[in-house]
Structures are given as C-alpha cells and as structure tokens.
Design brief:
Layout lengths: L7 H5 L4 H4 L5 E7 L2 E8 L7 E10 L2 E10 L5 E12 L2 E9 L1
Length: about 100
C-alpha cells in the first residue's frame, strides 16, 4: 500500500529533534578547573551554527542536573529539556526529564 505523504528524503530534511541528533558536528567542552560545566555542539569546527548546548550542575561530585537546549537549522531555540538525576549514595537511580 503506497502512501501519499512525503518521501524518505523529505522526511530526513525536516528540522526536528529526532533528525538533528544524527548530524555531523563539532563539540566544544567548557570546564571550570577540572569540572565539565557545559557542552556546546556546533555544525562545524568553525562554530558556524549552534545545534545544541547542555549546562551541567553538580551536587558534590554527582552530576545532578542537565539543561539541554536544542536549536533549529536557523539558530532559533526549539526546545529546552531539564534533566534531574537522582542518586542513592553513589548510585544513579533515575533521570527525570521535563520538556519546555
């Protein structure tokens, strides 16, 4: 049964989170001392266009929060994901994600 929707090629070019996770890119890692504070993903090493950025927060040595921002092909913010990581002692138990 043939559909009347878009082609596979047209589908792949849609500017959506699912598609943008699989792009070629350059990741910039930013530290304060030895602590990784953020990761910025660019389209290329020349930092032409920001694809996504993640800001990391810690409680002690545990990573407890990630705020991830996804941008569209024009550089506009599409969505923000706030991730909260929960631990029992040193064991990571869960990650709760809220999309805004």
């Amino acid at each position: 049964m043939a559909g009347s929707g878009i082609t596979e090629g047209q589908h792949e070019t849609l500017d959506t989170l699912t598609h943008k996770i699989t792009e070629s890119s350059f990741a910039e890692l930013l530290y304060t001392g030895k602590v990784l504070d953020s990761v910025i993903v660019w389209t290329d090493v020349g930092k032409t266009l920001k694809i996504r950025e993640s800001a990391l927060t810690y409680t002690g040595k545990n990573l407890t929060g990630v705020i991830a921002k996804q941008y569209d092909g024009g550089g506009s913010l599409l969505v923000t994901l706030t991730k909260t990581l929960a631990y029992t002692g040193k064991t990571l138990d869960s990650v709760t994600v809220v999309r805004t």
